[in-house]
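step: validate -> pass
step: tokenize input -> pass
step: predict -> running
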Amino acid sequence: MPADYNGTWDMVSNDNFDGYMVALDINFATRKIASMMKPQKVIKQAGDSFTFQTISTVLKYESSFKIGEEFEEVTKGMDNRKCRSVVNWDNDKLVCVQKGEKKGRGWTHWIQGDELHLELTCEGQVCKQVFKRM
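step: predict -> pass
step: emit ->
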């Protein structure tokens, strides 16, 4: 049985977020505002179906997907690009590959203890975020 991602998660660390945003061509002012936010993630999991919400004071982003099924994703509120995304299990990790304008874009989530880890990648930049289960 895969890991249980259900829950509400609060951000506790965010390493190299600015480098990741530069790779996405996000402007300076937006990067400065985004770097001050401590978003919360709400994950709803029913078998291989997921809904991820990222919530902050200025942003609410939601993505729903089923493992192994490609879907069109619009990264509204982030870099506002369309991409084709697919999420698969790699043992207990969720691994997303996003195909679009930017090369090497995607993310990986995994759980260690009461922490949710997230690595965001784009064009050689890696941002590492950690969230604590509420």
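step: describe -> The chain has two helices and ten strands.
step: cleanup -> pass
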